[in-house]
Structures are given as C-alpha cells and as structure tokens.
Amino acid sequence: MTSYMSDPANPVPYRHRPIQETYSEGSQWGNWLVEDQRFVTDRKDVAVWKLPVLKQDLVLTGDVTADIFASTTGTDNDLVVKLIDQYPADDPDAKMRGYQLMTNAEIFRGRYLESFEKPKPLKAGSIREYKFSLHDVDHVFKAGHTVMVEIQSTWFPLYDRNPQSFVRNIMTAKPADYQPATITIYSGTGHDSVLQVPLMNACDQIECF
C-alpha cells in the first residue's frame, strides 16, 4: 500500500519548468513525450515502483494495461500511470546516463468509473478499480536498464486540474472546490494493482508492482 498527497494548487507538470510557449522560438514542446522524467520522480505526490536492474533484454510489443486499485479522501480524482525505461548510470552515452524515458502514459478520471455519460462522485475512502489502456508499445528495455512505474494525480497543464471534490462541471468549479486529497494505491490480496505489459521474449506478460 502506497499513499501520497495530491494538491491541485501544486500540480505535477507534464514538462520541465519553466514550460516554454508551444510555438515559441527554440521551444522543445515537440519533444515532451521523450523528456527525461527525473524532473518529477522525486516529488512527494508521485508514487514510484522499480523492478530490479534487468539481466536480459525485455521486448514489449502490444497493449499496456493499468489495473489499479485506489482510494481517495476526496470525492473525485485522476490517476496518471506511466511506464518508464530508466537508463543505467554508466550508460555509454553520457547524455543518457540515468535518463528516464517514458514509453507509455495515460490518465483516467474517477468520476467516469461507472459511466462516461453520467459521471458520479466517488465515496471517500472506498477502494475502486481503475482499469484502462496505456496504449500500444513496441520497445526493448535493454539489459542493465530498469523498468519503472509511476502514478500521480495531476498532469498540468496537459490535463486540467481535478478539484478532487466532485462538481458537476469542472469548468465552473470555484476556488474552494479545489482541495488536497490523499490517494492510496493498494497491492494486497483482493486488491492487487498491476501493470500488464506484453512481454515477447519470455512469457505472455510480466506484472509490474
């Protein structure tokens, strides 16, 4: 079980700050999907899991699925799940030493767990299952690299901030609606959070967590 405090007033950015204007001269916006994730990994509102350093290559080809059991002290929340390839500290390419390359990522908003047409508030403290696709991957995690999974509840300004207290329309949420909340990720019997990845060179899938 892992918990973190998510605060809409201090959201996790999707790019290294200061965030450049999208079309400004010299902007690196076009490269954000491969930006080194170390700029957020040490934040207290980002939960991190790592597998042991790989002894052989892992070839992933196919759909990546997050199956996460989580609760919140609020009545709405977001879950952002990232799959990351961490390069070794002694990588032959000095620029890539320790680099955290995001291979897959996606977000799911708790109000839509039962229906996209009729969003509902979450019951504070209740454990809910969030199962959603992180889309396809075709990537080799090389021997010596580390497979990482990160979960957070803000990804700003790529996605609008969730007030974390349920409102009918987030676009009309008032300042008082934006509240910190504690998010808990579960990994015990009956609530076993996993990231299912299509492992091609050993077995059908490997479960990370």
Question: Would you kindly provide a written description of the structure presented here, covering whatever features stand out?
Answer:
With 209 residues, the chain is an all-beta fold. The chain has one domain: Jelly Rolls. Helices cover 2% and strands 40% of the residues. The chain has one helix and eleven strands, in the order βαββββββββββ. It has one helix spanning 38-41; strands at 2-6, 46-50, 58-72, 78-86, 100-109, 128-141, 146-152, 181-188, 191-192, 194-198, 205-208. Strands 1, 3, 6, 8, 9, 10 and 11 form a seven-stranded antiparallel β-sheet that branches. β10 (194-198) and β11 (205-208) form a beta hairpin. It is globular, with a radius of gyration of 18 Å. The N and C termini lie close together (11 Å). The model has no long low-confidence stretch (mean pLDDT 93).
* Average residue pLDDT: 93
Q: State Rg.
A: 18 Å
CATH superfamily: Galactose-binding domain-like
CATH class: Mainly Beta
Q: Can you count the helices? A: 1
Distance between the termini: 11 Å
**Fraction of helical residues:** under 10%
Number of domains: 1
- The global form is globular
Q: Major beta sheet, specifics?
A: 7 strands, antiparallel
How would you spell out the order of helices and strands? Answer: EHEEEEEEEEEE
Oligomeric grouping of the chains: single chain
CATH architecture: Sandwich
> Would you count the extended β strands for me?
11
Low-pLDDT stretches are none
Structural class: mainly beta
What name does CATH use for the topology? Answer: Jelly Rolls
- Strand fraction: 35-45%
